[in-house]
Amino acid sequence: MAEKRLILRAELTPRAKLGLEKVCESRGMTQLSVISRLILWFSEQDGRTQHAVLGHTDEDPGELLFQSLMKKLAESANSGK
Questions:
Q1: Per-residue DSSP letter, 14
Q2: Quick one: angle between helices 47-54 and 61-79, nearest 10?
Q3: How far apart are CA 65 and CA 70, in angstroms?
Q4: pLDDT truncated to tens, each residue of the chain (81 aa)?
Q5: What is the secondary structure of 17-69 as a DSSP string?
Q6: Angle at CA 60, nearest 5°, toward 48 and 76?
Q7: pTM higher than 0.70, yes or no?
Q8: Residue 81: what pLDDT?
C-alpha cells in the first residue's frame, strides 16, 4: 500500500528550479519524488549537518558533511549493515 501523501507548496528561485529540473531529468524522477526524498534525508541528519547544508555555520560545510558521512559509514560497518 502506498504511503499517504501530503501536499505542500514551495516557492523556488529560478536557479533552484533549474537545478531541480536538471536533477529530475538526469535521474528520470519527478520533481515531487526528488523534493520528498531530499526533505526526508535532510530531516534525518544531525544538527551539524543541517547547519552545514543551510549555511548556518562558520565551519567548512564540505568538511562537516565529510565527517558526518564517515561517521555513518563507520556505524554501518560496525553494525554489520
A1: H
A2: 150
A3: 9
A4: 677 888 889 999 999 999 999 999 999 999 999 999 999 999 998 888 888 888 888 888 788 888 888 888 898 888 865
A5: HHHHHHHHHHHT--HHHHHHHHHHHHHTS-HHHHHHHHT--SS-HHHHHHHHH
A6: 50
A7: yes
A8: 56
Give residues with Cβ within 8 angstroms of 68, minimum separation 6: 45, 46, 48, 49, 52
Grid cell 531529468 is found at: 25
**Gap between the Cα atoms of 51 and 64, Å rounded:** 9
Residues in the chain: 81
**48 residue type, one letter:** R
Alpha-carbon distance 43 to 53, whole Å? 11
Which pLDDT score is estimated for 17?
Answer: 97
Euclidean distance between CA atoms 20 and 1, whole angstroms = 28
